[in-house]
Amino acid sequence: MLCAAAFSTMTTTGASGQAGSQSSSQSGARTASKTAVIPTETIYPGQTIEETHLQVVAVTNPDLSGDYASGLDQVVGKVTNRTLLAGRVIFVAGLREPYAVERGKAVRIVYSNGSLTITAGGSPLDNASVGDLIRIRNTDSGMIVSGTVMADGTVHVVAK
Prior knowledge:
- The chain is mainly β.
- The protein has no helices and 12 strands.
- The protein is about 0% helix and about 35% strand.
- Strands 8-9-10-11-12 form a 5-stranded mixed β-barrel. A 3-stranded antiparallel beta sheet has the order 1-5-4, with no helix packed on it.
- InterPro entries: Flagellar_FlgA (IPR039246), SAF (IPR013974), SAF_FlgA (IPR017585).
């Protein structure tokens, strides 16, 4: 079980009187200390992770392994698939990009071929992130088509 005891941050005061941050290490021979990102409060599945919910700490447990987040850029703006407890490391495998389209919410279906562009309204049959292949029901015809989710929330389809 991973707990907050695996981390430490120390604040030291230098000769100039300014506070600085220093990580403690038992080996002393380390040239670079490892860091981990931990939540400061419980974060629930489906919740978008914000920087205000996080803290970067030095890893002091030499046995800590796995693909855990070591920098804020790996977790800020992502959505968690599982409950993240305060003081525990965040494993990258438990995070995903936010959904660009959500099941049942209206989207615009776009078909382009050269200078021809056809658009229609649709309803996604699943949640999907940018770049995902998704099935959509055309609200006018009732046909189910497949397409790729784009960054602007539209779904681009290709001809069969």
